[in-house]
Write a structure and sequence with these properties.
Blueprint lengths: L2 E2 L4 E2 L2 H16 L3 H5 L9 E2 L18 H8 L3 E5 L2 E4 L1 H20 L3 E2 L5 E3 H7 L2 H6 L4 E4 L5 E4 L4 H11 L8 E10 L14 E11 L2 H21 L4 E5 L10 E7 L5 E6 L4 E4 L20 E4 L6 H8 L7 E9 L4 E9 L6 H8 L3 E4 L2 H8 L16 E5 L8 E4 L5 E6 L9 E3 L19 E15 L1 H5 L3 E3 L5 E3 L1 E7 L1 H11 L1 E2 L2 E2 L10 E5 L5 H16 L4 E3 L6 H11 L3 E5 L7 E6 L5 E5 L3 H8 L2
Parallel strand pairs: 3-31, 6-10, 18-20, 20-23, 30-31, 30-32
Antiparallel strand pairs: 1-2, 4-5, 7-9, 8-9, 10-11, 11-27, 12-13, 13-24, 14-15, 14-24, 16-22, 17-18, 17-19, 21-22, 24-27, 25-26, 28-29, 32-33, 33-34
Helix pairs in contact: 3-13, 4-8, 4-13
The structure holds adenosine-5'-triphosphate and magnesium ion.
Length: about 625
């Protein structure tokens, strides 16, 4: 037996094996029945002395956010490689609880559980047309087999599920249905970081709906959305639902479930009063009009030596940035060719590159390099403007510039700028689109008397109407009532199962450690006896252990040969919702109980424990 734990928590081999057996069973299990009968409650006592875990005083050196630090210190995860983690029994218990809530609510919504392969033939990705983009973005883990056929480790399963369904259904009578699975996904992320938040191997629940028309797809989407609300409520998370970028396939409908937390990588713009919420990638803000430009005046050129930035121009011309139009040049990569694109934006606002990429429908978008800028403008970087740009450039303008008159622009000539430029008069009228980054303080599109505010969010779920994107490219058709063939309508619905664990810790922790929501804590209650030689306490503790377990609680008995202080500290760090201590008060039949979330303690009789915990479960 190896020595583990703060000082000497020991590896319980039987514990380890029973945990491993559960893992195999779960991964191999296909049927709802199998999974639903799966319980996280163990029949053998779980004693800290035998639990495979180790706690640490120090944060891992690569941990940047609190959930990563605390989960590593409390012994939940062990790094195996960059963005690759092993889940200890503690974390696996929590993840299984999350999986179980998801599974129950998916089943309740009528979705059916399946298990698709992780190994995916490249040929399917070629059929859907996504192979090139995924390879260019380097996100796909790929390998070749002994016959040199190329395979990918599944980053998502639209291709596989479309292939499955096209082999199985033929008539409109076969619809509607939704299939789902919970399984590891593989993505070679550019920057794996933040522990479980952005991994290269992570657990996802992915579901796919199949319908015969738009109306039915809307219903499937709403059914899934309702299931997601039930899931995130049961998991005890504070979250918002926001409109999400739906890529180049259009505005079919896409929303994200975001756990609100400072560490979130996404910026969300909200107007709670009007019921508006959107990811900044997608958000629309109504901005105050630019200062009145007046009747068009003749265009003129001014010398502006060494002046390039908007700030320098404001000072030089004594103007606000809102009276200027800046020109930013990009290179858009399409499958056949590349195009130089100029975006005209009001001087005080930023360009939303996600909106731009979607409008262009390109594979990738980069800032134009200096050489390209010189070729299309005839000047050094920093002087681009809409007047006299090379014909090869596609010019797009943000809506905010539509009614501006007499604006200041770059001149496409070193050390000069143009004043009193009027778009459409001095240069061809550009195409106007919403290409702006919305900001807090902008007005809400649903009610322009209200302002948008900003919060940060962690994306834990994403629901998306795919329409016929995959059914058309991969030939998933059914015979309609009209006797004609039609492509099926699809939706896809993801949940970041393991990311949820990290998000829950981001939202629920304090200076002493994790504070798990009750529904996903690895154990509900930890019991310990103050005095190592207190025989009566130990017997009573064992009895309570059994009765709590019989009452359906997941109980950990901390019987480690450690000082009381260290045991209590570990219980706090691990985030177990309740702690019960058999101490001096037990002479009068009382135990000390503590609620991890509120910090409340009380000396109570054994028969009061249930009610005390009941009142404080979140
Ligand atoms: P992100 O924008 O965070 O990269 P995504 O939009 O690419 O995520 P989806 O394809 O929508 O992710 O996947 C469904 C869910 O899987 C996400 O909502 C998220 O919770 C989770 N997820 C995605 N990528 C990762 C990852 N690298 N590590 C952990 N969970 C992830
Ligand atoms: Mg997403």
């Amino acid at each position: 037996m190896a020595a583990f734990g703060r000082e000497q928590a020991r590896l319980g081999v039987s514990q380890l094996f029973s945990s491993l057996r559960m893992t195999t069973w779960l991964i191999a299990g296909h049927g709802i029945g199998t999974f639903a009968s799966f319980s996280t409650q163990t029949e053998t006592p779980v004693r800290s002395s035998q639990l495979f875990f180790k706690t640490y005083y120090d944060d891992p050196s690569d941990a940047e956010i609190v959930s990563h630090k605390l989960m590593a210190r409390a012994g939940y995860l062990v790094k195996t490689g960059s963005g690759i983690y092993t889940f200890t029994p503690l974390l696996w218990r929590t993840v299984k609880k999350i999986m179980r809530v998801i599974c129950e609510e998916m089943d309740r919504s009528g979705a059916q559980e399946i298990l698709m392969p992780i190994l995916q033939p490249f040929s399917l990705w070629q059929e859907s047309g996504r192979l090139e983009g995924y390879l260019k973005a380097n996100i796909l883990f790929n390998l070749s087999d002994r016959k040199n056929a190329q395979l990918a480790l599944g980053p998502t399963h639209e291709e596989v599920v479309t292939d499955l369904v096209r082999r199985t259904v033929s008539s409109h009578k076969d619809f509607p249905f939704t299939l789902y699975q919970q399984q590891m996904k593989f993505r070679d992320e550019i920057r794996p970081r933040f522990g479980l938040m952005r991994c290269r191997e992570f657990m996802m629940k992915d579901a796919y709906s199949f319908d015969v028309d738009e109306e039915a797809l809307d219903l499937s989407y709403e059914t899934m959305k309702a299931a997601y609300h039930r899931i995130f409520k049961r998991l005890g998370l504070r979250y918002v639902v926001v409109d999400a970028d739906s890529g180049a396939i259009g505005d079919g409908g896409s929303q994200e479930f975001m756990v609100t937390a400072e560490a979130g990588e996404d910026e969300l713009l909200l107007c709670e009063a009007a019921g508006y919420g959107a990811n900044v990638e997608k958000a629309i803000g109504i901005i105050p009009p630019a200062p009145e430009g007046g009747e068009p005046r003749p265009m003129r050129k001014e010398s502006t030596p060494d002046i390039k930035s908007v700030e320098q121009l404001c000072e030089f011309f004594d103007m606000t940035a809102a009276s200027m139009v800046k020109t930013v040049l990009y290179k858009a990569v399409f499958s056949e060719d590349e195009k130089v694109v100029a975006v005209l934006m009001r001087g005080d606002r930023k360009i939303n590159e996600v909106k731009l990429e979607n409008r262009l429908g390109c594979l990738a978008l980069h800032m134009a390099d200096d050489e390209t800028i010189r070729r299309v403008t005839g000047a050094d970087p920093g002087f681009a403007g809409p007047v006299g740009l090379s014909q090869e450039v596609l010019v797009l303008a943000d809506e905010s510039t539509r009614r501006m008159t007499n604006v200041l622009c770059g001149c496409n000539e070193n050390d000069f700028h143009l004043l009193d430029v009027n778009l459409g008069r001095d240069c061809p009228e550009p195409e106007y689109l919403d290409l702006m980054v919305a900001e807090p303080g902008d007005r809400c599109v649903l009610d322009d008397t209200l302002e948008l505010t900003v919060v940060r969010g962690i994306e834990v779920g994403h629901i998306f109407k795919l329409g016929t994107k995959y059914s058309e490219s991969m030939g998933l058709q059914f015979m309609g009532k009209d006797g004609k063939k039609h492509p099926a309508l699809m939706g896809c619905y993801g949940i970041g199962t393991t990311r949820i664990a990290a998000a829950a810790v981001e939202q629920n922790h304090d200076e002493d450690g994790i504070v798990w929501p009750y529904s996903i804590a690895p154990f509900h209650v930890v019991l310990t006896v103050a005095g190592k030689k207190d025989k009566t306490g130990i017997t009573a503790c064992e009895d309570l252990y059994t009765s709590l377990m019989e009452a359906g609680k997941d109980v950990l008995l901390d019987d480690r040969d450690l000082g009381l202080g260290a045991r209590l500290k570990d219980a706090e760090l691990m985030g177990i919702p309740f702690r019960i201590l058999f101490g001096r008060g037990f002479k009068e039949g009382k135990v000390e109980i503590k609620c991890r979330r509120t910090g409340e303690t009380a000396d109570i009789m054994l028969d009061e424990i249930d009610a005390w915990m009941e009142e404080r479960m979140n």
